Amino acid sequence: MTESVRHEAGPAVEAAESADVSDREKQELYTASQRQLIWRRFRRHRLAQVSIVMLALLYVLAAFAEFIAPYETSHDFKGFVYAPPAKIHLFDEDGFVGPFVYGLKGGRDESYQRIFEEVKEEQYPVRLFVRGDSYEFWGLFETDLHLFGVGEEGQIFLFGTDRLGRDLFSRVIYGTRISLTIGLVGVFLSFVLGLIIGGISGYFGGVVDEVIQRLIDLLVSIPQLPLWMALAAAVPREWDSIQTYFAITVVLSIVGWAGLARTVRGRLLSLREEDFTVAARVSGVSEWRIITKHLLPLFASYIVVAITLSVPGMIIGETSLSFIGLGIQPPAVSWGTLLQDSQMIANVALHPWLLIPALFVIVTVLMFNFMGDGLRDAADPYSIN
């Protein structure tokens, strides 16, 4: 069709092309797989997409914590105890000079409270890829290169310092690694236990089902936090940080599998008598293959959503135990251990930046919940495409 004819046809041609596009979209929708339908619906959930980006950023921080943090977690600055968050300046008396911080001078006010003043004569430009504290990157090689800093001649405390003069920003970045990974490891263990125990309970039924369900009733009847505290208190105090990390992960997973196991059990009870299940059993297919190859994939999307929504509970559990001193122990750093300094109200009133780790916990939990909501809506077979 030439341009002149196309122009003369006008609205009729545009309507025909729109109809073709609509028919093509419908055809793609009807022939799409379940995974493609879920992805199609998930892309329409903007908040869930933003959550994925935010969580990806947090896990990047966890993976490259040594490089991103300007200081090591144990680096204490004498004379800078409870220093406030640094102010990043772009202009001085002569105009724009780029990002820099002034030097700090500590002192006491009339009530003997610690105060800090900026020293205008000392300017430290903020630079990228500077040399600082040495570290082993992923245990592969030793280096002292950091993403940003002001060099050895000055200090930069983006989130202020704690009671020992340690940079809170660096400690929060390092704490991201434990607080985020403990949620994934704990959920993985709960996922395995929930699928196996729930699958056995729902598929075989009878006495086995009765025993497992009464065990689950016992677990869910115990208040979660006291149970965590009791189990965490049994962890030997002389264990190192790695042993304590895995012990707390197991503690959080002990009761985390109960909800998933009940869900798996209920789904299998409704599916084990279906025609395709009976046909597979008559054909001589093993019970294990029927469960893993025929039944569990039918509600795999729900399992993924349940796992996603369980991660925030694990993170909050670790934070709570570490906050009261029963979780991760110093010198290991997590968001929970960082919040121990904020247990005293007077401390928080004088140094409110000590609550910054709590903001990371809140944001992370919200992002996981938003992503879980998006996955739940996308996996719903009755949702509108």
Could you explain the architecture of this structure?
This protein is an alpha+beta fold and 385 residues long. The protein has 16 helices and five strands. The chain has helices at 3-9, 11-31, 34-42, 46-63, 65-68, 168-204, 206-221, 224-233, 241-254, 257-271, 275-282, 287-295, 300-323, 335-338, 345-350, 356-379; strands at residues 89-92, 95-108, 114-125, 127-137, 141-149. The longest helix is centred in the middle third of the chain and has 37 residues, at 168-204. 30% of the residues are buried. Mean pLDDT is 83; it is low at 5-9.
Which helices and strands, and how do they pair?
Elements (H helix, E strand, L loop, with lengths): L2 H7 L1 H21 L2 H9 L3 H18 L1 H4 L20 E4 L2 E14 L5 E12 L1 E11 L3 E9 L18 H37 L1 H16 L2 H10 L7 H14 L2 H15 L3 H8 L4 H9 L4 H24 L11 H4 L6 H6 L5 H24 L6
Antiparallel strand pairs: 1-2, 2-3, 4-5
Helix pairs in contact: 3-16, 4-6, 4-16, 6-7, 6-9, 6-10, 6-13, 13-16
Sum this structure up briefly.
By secondary structure, the protein is α+β, with helices and mostly antiparallel strands. It has helices at 3-9, 11-31, 34-42, 46-63, 65-68, 168-204, 206-221, 224-233, 241-254, 257-271, 275-282, 287-295, 300-323, 335-338, 345-350, 356-379; strands at 89-92, 95-108, 114-125, 127-137, 141-149.
Unreliable parts: 5-9
**Sequence of strands across the biggest β-sheet:** 1-2-3
What letter string, H or E per element, gives the SSE order? HHHHHEEEEEHHHHHHHHHHH
**Count of distinct strands:** 5
Name the beta content range. 5-15%
Q: Estimate the helix proportion, in percent.
A: 55-70%
Q: Overall pLDDT, averaged?
A: 83
Biggest sheet character: 3 strands, antiparallel
What is the overall silhouette? elongated
Radius of gyration: 28 Å
Question: In whole angstroms, how far apart are the ends?
Answer: 34 Å
Number of helices: 16
Indicate the structural class. Answer: alpha+beta
